[in-house]
Write a structure and sequence with these properties.
The protein folds into 2 domains: 3-118, Sandwich (Jelly Rolls); 143-215, Arc Repressor Mutant, subunit A (Orthogonal Bundle), CATH 1.10.10.10. The protein is built from 8 helices and 10 strands. It has helices spanning 3-9, 18-28, 81-89, 110-116, 120-157, 168-175, 179-191, 207-215, and strands at residues 31-33, 38-40, 49-54, 57-62, 68-74, 96-99, 103-108, 163-164, 195-198, 201-204. A hairpin with a 5-residue loop joins strand 4 and strand 5 (68-74). Helix 5 (120-157) packs across helix 7.
Length: 217
Amino acid sequence: MDPAALISLYPSLSALPADRLAADLRALGEIDVPDRTTLFRETEPCVGFPMVLEGQVRVARGSPDGRELELYRVHPGEICIVSTGCLLGSTPMNAHGTTQGRTRLLVVDRATLLGWTAAEPFRTFLLGLLADRMADLMALVEAVAFQRMDRRLAAALLGRGRLIRSTHQQLADDLGTAREMVSRLLKRFEEQGWVALGREQIEILDAGALRGLTDAP
């Protein structure tokens, strides 16, 4: 592969010595993958660090009953944090990746990747994208968890009278979740005018709104 073409997508690689990068690329080569090809699966070992040159890779987590949750997509110039973590940590994959459209990839082995991280610009780029992906994943986890937990919390508040004497920790224990999540959801309910929060007590202001949340599809 032409080093200049790769650098156009991953500019931080320009910090590597030109002859070294060219030699690495000659050893690695690139692959052309058809649409909807599974690149990796849960529990499999990581075979390399995929650098997307064209197309995209959809990364998702599956469940035993066949459902799946899309985590993110990797486009040219981006990285796959699942592959990165498994490659550097020598652990099995914890998600699966499928191409979306014809996709060209450069698959980098662990030794080469570690060698490239010796260059500070590439290392900074890698860590920055890891941080961005982690922030996106945390937002996704919060959205999924809250979508389910807000309804459960609303249901737990209903039918206990207008004034509920309970701590956030007690509610969290009842629901099998963290106190921080209950507190954040209750704060959201309060901002919407559904409840009023006091010391170890919760006043229901709009039971209809809470009931509507539990009935939502």
